[in-house]
UniProtKB/TrEMBL annotation:
It comes from Streptomyces microflavus. Its EC number is 4.1.1.52. This is 6-methylsalicylate decarboxylase. It catalyses: 6-methylsalicylate + H(+) = 3-methylphenol + CO2. Keywords: Hydrolase, Lyase, Metal-binding, Zinc. GO terms for cellular component: cytosol. One of its GO terms (biological process) is secondary metabolic process.
Amino acid sequence: MHTTDAASGALGGAIDVHAHFVTSTLRTAMRDAGVEHPDGMPAIPEWSPQSALRLMDGTGVRAALLSVSSPGVHFGDDGAAVRLARSVNDEGAALVAEHPGRFGLMASLPLPDVAAAVSEAERALGELGADGIILLTQYAGRHLGDPVYEPLMAVLNERAAVVCLHPTSPVCWEATAMGYPRPMLEFPFETTRAVTNLILGGTVDRYPRISFVVPHAGAALPVLADRIAAFAMMRQGAAAVDAISSLRRLYFDVAGFSSPRALPALLGLTDDEHTLYGSDFPFTPDWVVEALAADLAASKVLTPPQMRRVRDENAVRLFPRFGPAL
């Protein structure tokens, strides 16, 4: 068992709800599918449990919830996606068992095959004991909130699942990305589209036991929330939705570049009891994660009690098995 000195790092025992893992099985599947530059990034990043734990100890993270990042596990073949989802979820569960208290698992699903996704969600949350589910913002052009996902949402609601959202490239990225890596501009707007659809389509209201975690300091939502709320009230032929209240029920991680501007904007939309730490490692390189962790720890935006809530107390409410920091 790996021992930790995470409490001595900059963040003093944080829980990272936005951390990724790349197993050899996943890497091989991506390369076999021709995904050498996921979402326009330079390469598939290197990852190992040892590198993750070293970074966690250095930055003061006592536990990290591992998930597969974009483009997920579906590369065009439904059957292959089912097998790959099972494989990475099994590997994730093994990592959790090997490093108790240090890793958690947000399980991947073989969407857009909804029936297979329901089956794998039940297996992962039941048999494997996964801590939650990771969902991309859209699959085959259908954003979360589309009625096609209703059977899956019903199961996740029944299990009171924590669902972390993660952006992926939109189907029209060739026309909109302007040649830049999609995480720069497309990812924030994909997150904003998906969350808007979840709210305006009523998913958040119909399934109140699902705890949705929105990445990257809410993407564009802190800036667009009032605009979305106004249009939600003006829609003809649809029930009025209180978009601001729905947004305030969600959780938000601060992975990525939340300092110095995004975090204050986020706290204008939500509160410190719905804000969580995230690193986005290894798609955010270790040296950048270290700098961002130091910036967050030194931030004057959060009071010490607020920092404790963001650092780990809010995450413990979602993932009680990690308990309070010692």
